Amino acid sequence: MNAMITGGTGLLGRALLERLPDAVVLSRDVQRASHALGPLGRPARWDPSAGPPAAETLRDVEVVFNLAGEPVAEGRWTSDKKRRIRDSRVLGTRNLVAGLRALETPPSVLISASAVGYYGDRADEVLDEASGAGSGFLAEVCAAWEQEALAAEALGVRVICARLGVVLAPGGEALARMLPVFRMGAGGRLGGGRQWMPWVHLADAADLLVHAARSPDLSGPINVVSPQPVTNTAFTAALGRALRRPAFVPVPKAALRLAFGEMSEVLLASQRALPRRAEDAGYAFAHRDLDRALADLLAVRGATQTS
After folding, report:
1. I need a labelling partner for 251 at 20 to 30 A (CA). Which of 66, 111, 191, 225 fits?
2. Residue 19: in which H helix or E strand, if any?
3. Is residue 249 within 8 Å of residue 186, measured between CB atoms?
4. pLDDT digits (tens, 9 = 90+) for 68-114
5. What is the per-residue burial (b if ≥16 Cβ within 10 Å, else e) of 261-293?
């Protein structure tokens, strides 16, 4: 497929490029993107905040993967940080769709990232793609983000909103932050630990997006999460087992809020999300079980570090 990716230098974008190495990659900094991606992709310049991408970068593209966005879990949520989180997703997607609207023949598929944060904090409620939006900053951002992407349906584009869970990868942000602490034997649950943590192996996240692009009957939201979500307590216990380290040092809610402010809601929110639409569309998860997924990821990380 002739593909274009925004956010191609990010974790999921690079995994997609391993599957679609000839994709166009839109980036603010073409030189930096070329250096980061090496032989993968064909970088082209686009600033999502400045307006639509140039028509020549979209010409002959069949599938657009829209993954760009300000990192959510980096730094405290100041008013300026929250503005960047929202604008990079909502305004960026609005400008991308404006670029598609200007084409005589738009792409047939737009796969736009979203997040399970769409559901807000829902305790033990089982969530699928038919579940309504929750409340809170992230839920509001995700709902507005998806609305901008779905505007492309008026152009005859099949739109998929990929509600991503916590993406686990050898060099990914989630594991990178946890591994040093757990290796010292100082890991443990966050808050009460009862919050559900919808996770997904990076390989499944990338493969599912490609599967969705090639599934003509699939549109609307899909939960990009493992079919076996776990609580935070269960996740930290599994990571401790994988590293052969104890995992019994809890981090109280008050400490998380003191350290991270409003951003702590990312760590404490509970989303028991299931990938029903993905499985109904015939996607078979390669990494369903957390223990086996962590063993695979840590083996890859070890090989990378020793090579």
Report:
1. 225
2. helix 11-19
3. yes
4. 999 898 878 999 999 999 999 999 999 999 999 999 999 999 999 99
5. eebbbbbbbbbbbbbbbbeebebebebeebeeb
Most distant CA pair in the chain, distance: 59
Q: b vs e for 30-39, b when ≥16 Cβ sit within 10 Å of the residue's Cβ?
A: eeebbebbee
Expressed in percent and rounded to 5, the helix, strand and coil fractions of the chain are 45, 15, 40
pTM: 0.93
For 179, half-sphere exposure in the C-beta direction (CA atoms, 13 angstrom radius) is: 16
Could you tell me which residues come within 8 angstroms of residue 9 by beta carbon, excluding any fewer than 6 positions away? Answer: 25, 27, 32, 33, 36, 37
Q: Could you give the CA distance from residue 280 to residue 255 in angstroms, rounded to a whole number?
A: 41
- Please enumerate in sequence order all residues whose Cβ is within 8 A of that of 190, keeping only pairs 6 or more positions apart, or say none: 232, 236, 250, 251, 256, 267, 268
How many angstroms separate the CA atoms of 153 and 120, rounded? Answer: 26
Question: Residue 188: what residue type?
Answer: G
> Which residues of the chain have a pLDDT value below 70?
300-307
For the segment 268-300, what is each residue's pLDDT rounded down to a tens digit?
899 999 999 999 999 999 999 999 999 999 986
Q: Determine whether 247 is exposed, middle or buried from the number of CB atoms within 10 Å of its CB (0-12, 13-18, 19+).
A: buried
Phi-psi sector, 31: left (phi>0), alpha (psi -120 to 50), beta: alpha
Contact predicate 48/95, CB 8 Å:
yes
Query: Rounded CA gap, 249 and 62, in Å?
Result: 49
- Alpha helices, DSSP H, located in 38-170: 55-58, 79-101, 137-150
* β-sheet bridge partners, residue 114: 163
- CB-CB contact of 157 with 132 (8 Å): no
